[in-house]
Structures are given as C-alpha cells and as structure tokens.
Amino acid sequence: MKISLERVHFMPKLLQPGILYVSEEFETAAHLCPCGCGEKIRTPLGPTEWKFTQGRNGPSLSPSVGNWHLPCRTHYWIRDGRVVWAKHWTEEQVRAGRLREAQRRAEYFYSLNRSGPRGMVARVIEWVRRMIALK
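The structure assignment produced for this chain is given below.
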C-alpha cells in the first residue's frame, strides 16, 4: 500500500485511506489503519514518541505501529511511503514492548533532570507510566 503525506494544521474529521496526515505544530500524525478496518490511528510525535520524516519516496514513521487495542491487531512500519508489515506479537511481547517504551521515556525525562534530584511529580509520572505499560 502506498502512503502519501498531507501536512495539516488540524486533523480532518474524515481521513482518507493511504494518506498520513501530519500536524507538526501539534506534534501528531494520523492515518487510517492500512488493514482496511477503517480505524483512525493517531501517533504523537516527539522525542519519546514516534518520529516522522519525509523522504524522496514518501513519509516514514518510526518506530513501528502496533494496534494492540484494536480487533485487527495490525503491526507495521510506514517507510518511504509504503506500509511494511511486521510479525504479529503475542500478549507477552506486547507487555514487554510497553515496558521498554515506558523505560525509554523515563530515561529520556531523567536525562533532562540529570543535574539535580528528581522531584516527587516526576517519580509519580514514571510510576503511572510503568503501571499503564503492564496492563
């Protein structure tokens, strides 16, 4: 499946298949699930989330998109304007992936506060993220 890019300020209410909508101002991307189920997929952009790049052949989004909360449970990358399908993950792999994401985020935010002790709010946020990742 070919994916084209449409830069937007606000996300449209109706998304079209085969288009990756990107709002760099609001640091978010959206597209319809490439399996054809019609679900809207939203991916936040930023240093602890997904990264969007635009190449000669089309947009890329990384890391992979895993729609574990949807009935289709699709897993894929968007690379150079194409959907690249990934292997199906088990529930154990999904939990491990969520834990790695939470750890990566915690390390990133901790690195921002390296110069001093971490505050209570940062520790609570990190604990909540770990709890969410385990579900």
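Interim note for the steering committee: The chain has two domains: 4-85, 91-134. The beta strands are 4-7, 19-23, 28-32, 40-44, 51-55, 58-66, 75-79, 82-85.
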